[in-house]
Amino acid sequence: MSDERWRNDPVSERVKALCDRIGQTLVFTLTGALQYSDVNSWMKKNALLLPDTDQIRRLDLARELYEYIAKRLNADRAKKWFIDSNVSYKKITPVRAIRSDQNRDVRASAVHVVNYEQ
Domain range holding 54? Predict the structure, then answer.
């Protein structure tokens, strides 16, 4: 969907970048982390605790969709999109859809919001 060179960055940098963009609470929610402090741990360069593969996949999807919307609309709208109830008209938020691995629906929602608001 967008330039994804950031996928080669260490996990700690990817987590920090997403937290900087959408906030730590949304990152905690969409990854399904067990404790809020886990996200803090993940941001450390030499972290002993790292997100599991499912959590990394969710982080990367969230970052991809954030960048897609921010590039076409703006950063504020991209952040707001995560908490809007609009995923394929199922009345759930994109952050919850990412958490429950509804990837096709959440991608369609991102495309829809861009097409609708451009």
Answer: 5-117
